[in-house]
Amino acid sequence: MDTNNLQKIITDFRQTRDERTLDAFACDIVLAEHGYWSFDRNSWPRAQLIMALFHNSKPEDKPLIKWLLKQEHLAQEVEMPYYALDAVTYLLYKYMEMEDLFAIYHSKFETYGDIYLEVELTFGFDKEETKAYLRDPANKHPYTEDYLKTIARYESNTQAKYKTRAELMEYYENRKIVPITNDLEFSEEFMKTGISEYSKILDKEKEEQLKNENRDR
Predict the structure, then answer these.
(1) Which residue, 13, 87, 36, is CA-closest to 190?
(2) Are 84 and 184 in contact (CB under 8 A)?
(3) CB 3.0 to 4.6 Å from 163: which of 41, 128, 130, 168, for a disulfide?
């Protein structure tokens, strides 16, 4: 899908908020034909929509961002690449309200993208403000206790220098977007077909094994 079509989808959704128009981007887990593992066959088009948003989003796109993030969380159940997850988590961070902290925490610590996503995303607007929010009984959530322990663990590293919100936003928009884009391009075949370079190796080994077995008969 080209950039103009993606932008039209984004623009239309700002007006309609009709999730039925997003069916082509919803997580759709199927068993790959080669039989090694399942994959999300809408992962690639969704990644393209996320990247279009990354380069041209507005605050009113937040409902779309939250919907896309939910689909990325679902796709993590079959270990889909987490590069688009990183980009859309950042977009939620960019337009966040305090209640969005838990979705951001989920992206960082409840998926396979733990190492890839930046920990400062979970600090929110300000680490101290985030801790105060989490300690307020009115904001109780299943992640609350672990969230506070996680922040404390990072704070115990006195040698670490964490990015401020402004620094993190500059980093994503001008630097990290480059490896995210490259990693997505590298993963394109798997995201479209469920077939990775590793599965090709397994297929080749299986083919060789069958040849050897036939030869030995």
Answers:
(1) 36
(2) yes
(3) 168
